[in-house]
Amino acid sequence: MPGLLTALALLTVLAVAALLRDRLGAVVALCVALAGTFLAASAVGLILLDLGRLQPWPLRLGLFAAFAIIILLAFVARRRLPAITPAIVLHARPLALGLGVLIVAGVGLRLHPSPYLQGGQDQGIYVNVGHHIARTGRLRPVDRLLRGAVRGVPQADVLAAYRVKPQPADSPLAGVREGRWTAGIHIEDARAGRLVPAFFQLMPVWFAMCELDWGFARSTWPLVPFWALSALALFGLARRLALDSADPLVRRRAGTIGLVALAGLALHPLDLWISTFTVTENLARACLLMAACLSLEAGAAERDDRPGARLLAVLGGLCFAAGAFTRGSFVAHAIVLALALLLARDGAPRTRRALFAALVVGTTLAVVQAVLHSWPYFFSAAANHFHVPRLTPRPAVAVAWTLAAGAALLLLDLGLGRLSPPLRGLARRVLRVLAGLGLALAAIVLVRRAWLGSDEASPEQQVLAVLLRHGGPLPLLFGLVGLALAVRRADERHLPWVALAAAVVLTAALKSGVRYEFYYARYFVADVVPVLAVATACLLGHLVARLERRRGPRPAALACGAVLLAWLLPPLRLVPREVYWTRDLADDPAQLAGLFEHVPEDSLLLFDDRAPGRWRGLLAAPALLSFGRDALAAAPGGHIVEGALKAGTPVFLLSGGWEPADRQRWPSAAHGPWRTRVVARGVYHAPRAETVEGGAPARLVDGGGPWELQQLDRSIWRSSGAFSLYPDSMFVAATHTGFVTEPLPLPLGARVELWLPAGAPACEVTAALHTDAGPLVLASLPREPDGPLLWALPARVPSSAALALAAKCDAFTWRWLSVRAGP
């Protein structure tokens, strides 16, 4: 039943929120329900993935049990937690209405996420791997070509085509990563044909679960609730920061400040594009914002002696760890937050300890799973993104290091708990200085690269220029100033998260070269945009409160409205551009399904190396992962194709352009031309943002084009002019006594070879050339034992002639016919 699991998840959220509303408060209860349901579904998906059983019924049973346990735990918490007196919230109904309008509007703008399937980019790999998991229940695809299971294609030839070299038995790469298959997929075990995706697995697991619930065409729908989670958490985070302010006027406007931050995120053009594209930043950002919101709510609950503080802290730490299951760079965020929590030991020790323990344990498990499933991508990503030395330990050693590091952090936290108050104060000052230096360095780097340029890219291709183009100067200025004031004024409650925000901005500033905005921008600004939105909203709230205190409420309201217009209108002028609604390379799963349905199972699929658009890199991954076809992602050798055809394996060629005839020769510099016949034709539409260096794209271009699926005939043509014909070739016309061929170009100095089956009965076979001047009987040559029948071609032959063979026997069978140059 479509949507059953989604309905169960929504019912679980509503039930848990209703049970805990009078124990935790409406807002906090909703956050707990959302976080618990999200974590439970993620855990069930990852566990079933590790067991190789992520399939419909195991998933349904697992989620049903997990949701039942969550509701049971909510019942237990309700019995143990005391009821609280509902807090009086000023303007509660207008606040709820505004929140609902912004959430509905934001979700509506993002209601149709990209169904991106092309495998040449990382985001296409996520969707294809998710579809593969939904089809098979497991993570690791098995390439039958690599394993040597395709008829007529020796495993050694495929290994040579992929340039797979034998690994020494003592190499840490043996059985782990023995070569590269295509972008985002690596050969884990070449002999077994086992591949492994080179990234963290939580997001493809969500795509697989959604596909099992709603179908392949809607597998990317989790992007919509991911943004909704981010939006709710962003609102709650900004609201909590305002409630923790010492200024009563700011506290009175806490809900409004949360709405302002949410509006800045919902209407930001870059966020509109990123949140609807299949990149891990969407899920990781939801984890980051939800963790920050729950953690600050936990600290406030402990300080106010409200119930459920430790529960909120544990959920916050686990949400942050879920981000580490999603994206490799999030592990760096976890390390920064863990170190900040060690230095800033605030006035809520119980929640801080619970948050720290959940964060360290969850992130440790995430790294262990990454090592086991994505080694050594984990270490190569660390080297590429953070410029640390590239390490290649064995998986068992890497797991041991990870567990030891996690245990050391937990022990260090226990040891630092004995520090004296002066030393704790010194540690907080050190953390504040480090956060300030990081933010100052980020500002210097941004200014220098935006105006002075760098060796890697022009000033127009830097993070600052991208943020200015898409969001305007005011939110950027307010965000940086607000974050700087937060670094200066944050107490021990907020200091770890402020330090993490400064680290996020610094990381984005140090990266350089947003060469093609709509592809690379997600790496640079996905986390920066919500950080700036929260900092801008909080700074605006403090400025309005100060103005109201000095000038009165009316001038403050007018100034607030003017600043909001200056903040929100510049991005809105870009939103109507169609590039924000179609995304980069937004293709249709039905188009690819219609393309690959013409390729039967147990066949060999090749890709035309003449075609533009890197067809091999873009479509080999979906052919293998999403549609289960035996796709050769490497350039094929002539012997590979000939061996497959000789064994009777159908061979198909996917070309990126139409040819005028239905029977064609496929030219290849090394192995062609080969004769083919067209099986199917069509036009593949893939609207994409115009490629612009140093500017926001303003229009769409079609990144697809016509496609043509051809089947190679069993007549193999070579660049020398030689050819081989096999039984059932369309270039052989069979008769009751033998067979003739179409007129074919004949090379000088060649001979005709006819291979008969082993043990075939004696049969008299003659060969002749049919030319315009009449038939020319060919002279027979001596035959070796078990060798082919041989005929010599004349010294001078026409450019083309029809070759005719006749046999005088009752049952004439043959293996293949060749015309070969040389002796």
From TrEMBL:
The chain crosses the membrane at residues 27-49, 61-77, 83-109, 223-242, 254-277, 331-348, 355-378, 398-419, 431-451, 463-487, 494-514, 520-544, 556-575. The keyword Transferase does not apply. It comes from the Bacteria. Coiled coil: none annotated. Keywords: Membrane, Transmembrane, Transmembrane helix. This is Uncharacterized protein. It comes from Nannocystis punicea.
